[in-house]
Structures are given as C-alpha cells and as structure tokens.
Amino acid sequence: MVEAFSPGRVELLGNHTDYNGGLVLAFAVERGVTIRGAARADRRIILRSAAFPGVHEANLDDLAPSRERPWANYLVGVVAQFRRRGLDGPGFEATDSSDLPSGAGLSSSAALECAMAKFLQRLWGTDLPDMELAKIGQAAEHEFAGVRCGLLDQITSLFGRAGKIVSIDCRSLEVALLPAPEGHVFVIADSGVKHALVAGEYNERRASCEAAARDLGVEALRDVTPEGLEAAAGSLGLKPLMRARHVVGENARVAAGREALANGDVAGLGRLMFESHESSRANFENSCEELDFLVGAARATGLCLGARLSGGGFGGATVNLVREADAGAFCRGLSAAYRERHGRDLSLLVTHAGGASA
Questions:
Q1: Binning pLDDT at 50, 70 and 90, where does residue 104 land?
Q2: Rounded to whole angstroms, how far apart are CA atoms 164 and 354?
Q3: Are strands 44-49 and 92-98 parallel, antiparallel or unpaired?
Q4: What phi-psi label fits residue 314: left (phi over 0), alpha (psi between -120 and 50 degrees) or beta?
Q5: Where do runs of H (alpha helix) occur along 85-126?
Q6: What is the pLDDT of residue 27?
Q7: 53: Cβ contacts below 8 Å, ≥ 6 apart
Q8: Can you tell me the distance from the alpha carbon of 147 to that of 112, in angstroms, rounded to the nearest whole number?
Q9: 306 close to 13: Cβ distance less than 8 angstroms
Q10: CA distance 26 to 11
Q11: Which pLDDT belongs to residue 97?
Q12: What's the pTM?
C-alpha cells in the first residue's frame, strides 16, 4: 500500500500578485488530501473518491479528460504529465480523501494534484524535485481541469512546513521559509458566499493590470514602485490605475510582511493584513459585503491583530491572525456577530501554519 498527503493552503498577503510577476506570502494548513492505493499488474488505473460517487477507469497509454467525472481530471491530469515527461510505471488503484472544509478557499484542487504527484512519485520510484511536481500539478489543472491557475497553490502545498510561512517570488520562482508568529494561530472564516469569480470579473482585473503595465512601459506591475505609479497616475485610465494601486501596493506589503515576520513583529504583520483588505475593497473591488463585514467584525472583537480576504475574492473566506490563547473567544464573538447580521452560522477553521506534504 502506498500513501501520500498534501495540505491545503491560505494566502496570507499578495492578492492577485501572482500573474503580475509579484510576491506572495502563504502557508499550508493542518488539513489536506490523502491518496492511498497500490500497483496493479496491468496498465489500468482505477480511481475512487470519498467525496464523489462512481469509479473512474482509464489506461496509462490513453489518458484524456472525463466529462462524466470531473473530479478525476485532477488526478488523471497528473498521471498524464508524468507520462509526458517520459516517466512510466505500473497501473494502479487509488482512493482520495480530504478533511479540508468544503468551499472555504483552501485550494483542495492543488492539494489533490500534489498528493497525486507524491503518490505517483512513490509508486513509480521517480525523484522529481518539488518545484517540478508543482509545475506538474499546474499543468494538470490547465489541461485536464480547464483552470488557468498560477503556481501559488501548488508551491505552498509542497513547500509548506510546520511553523513556517512560504515566501514566493512568482517571477523567479524563488521560495523561502519564514517563521510563523509564535503563540498565534490563523482562523479561517468561511463567509458561505460561493466564489463569484466569473470569467468576466477575473478577465477584467487581469486585462486592467496588463493595460496599466503596458501604459507604464514595463513588463509587469512587479516592476513598478508605489512612488513611480503615483508619478505616472495621470497617464492611466481610472480602472487600470485602481487595479495597479492594489497590485503594486500588495507587492510592497508582502516585502514589508517579510520584514515583519523576520523581526517577530506580529502587530506589524496584522496591520498589513488590514491594509491589504482595504485595498482589495477599494482598489481591486474583489471583496463583497459579507467579507467586508467579517473583517470589520474581527477588528471589533479587539482580539484580532489582522484580517483580510484570502484568495480570488468575490466570496469565499477571510484569514484572521489571533493569539492562540484568544482563539476560542474570538471564534465565539465572530460567529455571534455573523449570525446576528446574516442569519446563518459561520464555518471556522483554527489552524497553525502547519501541514507538510508527505
């Protein structure tokens, strides 16, 4: 029996900076996806999922996306990427299971891909580096699941470690591990609003960022400083300027966040999180009423050092930085406020920066 695990992830700072060649801080959570299975004596692969009914069967020499069982595409796509690299081994049977909360924006798809890559590496005896496994997961999602994701999720899932924040340069793909705040936890608050990251909204944001970079004469907004952007603000349209202010400001906040983590400045990190959310709300316009309420209610508890939306936005979850000793009281206060305002329960996950692929 072969087993592999990869955790979900949370973006701490660096909202929509990845496709702008920018900087991100993220961490792996203490929950994730596990794949268990064994080799077969033929070329067949048989896949099952604890979360979905049915069985998906395929042949190693004829791999294609499935319309009937889209959950299997994240797995089969990884196998296809191994085969594309000239790697081979026996067929197998495998089952995936997850303890990640559904819909909380913890990137279960990347965890699934990375767990599959680890499983296959173990089963077939390959020795690809983790960055290559991350690229395999990304390519699987592009080609088999039809989602043009960046590498943030896969890198964080594979490089995350207990007590560490993952710092990623999305241009050079340089990865560093920084110390997570000691004595603190992160509370993931799922708003219950499904991501409305429809193609039009995402494409508008990305096109505006590209237009701003083009008008500023740079390859990407990564190459612009806040001071340089304001000096050239008159040359940009309103929307490109707003989007650029968010992305350029986020890169500056990630750089400041790195310093705060290195110096143990937890209060400073929290302030940057609040600033990040305000920029998402005012400049990038990818928040929503529920997320704004959660951030405001978190601040109002007096127990939260920093809070912001995490991920694409337009719904999903917030990430909240609190002292471990205050976590229970904070969760009770935030839950009561959300129930009173929106009439429904709030799904909360308390986690350290924790999980590591295994």
A1: low
A2: 7
A3: parallel
A4: left
A5: 108-124
A6: 96
A7: none
A8: 14
A9: no
A10: 4
A11: 96
A12: 0.92
Q: What does the DSSP assignment read for 142-200?
A: IIII-----SHHHHHHHH--TTEEEEEETTT--EEEEEPPTTEEEEEEE-SPPP---HH
CATH topology for 184-351 is Alpha-Beta Plaits (3.30.70)
Catalytic residues: 153
For residue 108, the model assigns a pLDDT of 86
The token duo for 252 is: 């500056």
pLDDT value of position 102: 66
Strand 347-351: give its sheet, edge to edge. Answer: 304-310, 317-323, 184-190, 347-351
Per-residue pLDDT at 196 exceeds 70? no
Lowest-pLDDT range, 119-123, 196-200, 324-328? 196-200
Take residue 251 and report the two structure tokens written for it.
């890169």
| Contacts of the segment 37-41: beta carbons below 8 A, 24+ positions apart | 37/1, 37/2, 37/92, 37/93, 37/94, 37/95, 37/119, 37/123, 38/1, 38/2, 38/92, 38/93, 39/2, 39/89, 39/90, 39/91, 39/92, 39/123, 40/90, 40/91, 40/92, 40/93, 41/90, 41/91
* pLDDT tens, position by position, 56-92: 999 999 999 999 999 999 999 999 999 999 999 999 9
Torsion of CA 265, 271, 272, 273, to 10 degrees: 110
- Domain assignments of the chain as residue spans, ordered by start: 2-179, 184-351
How is residue 207 written in tokens? Answer: 């096109």
Concatenate the DSSP letters of all residues of 231-275 into one string. HTGGGS-HHHHHHHHHHHHHHHHHHHHHHHHHTT-HHHHHHHHHH
User: In the prediction, which pLDDT does 198 show?
Assistant: 47
pLDDT tens track for 117-135: 999 999 999 999 999 999 9
Find out if CATH 3.40.50.150 is the number for domain 2-179.
no
Q: Which of 188, 262, 182 is nearest to 11 (CA)?
A: 188
Residues 178 and 164: beta-carbon distance below 8 Å: yes
Taking the CA atoms of residue 224, residue 164, residue 298 and residue 153 in that order, the dihedral angle to the nearest 10 degrees is 60
Query: Would you say the CATH fold of 184-351 matches that of 2-179?
Result: no
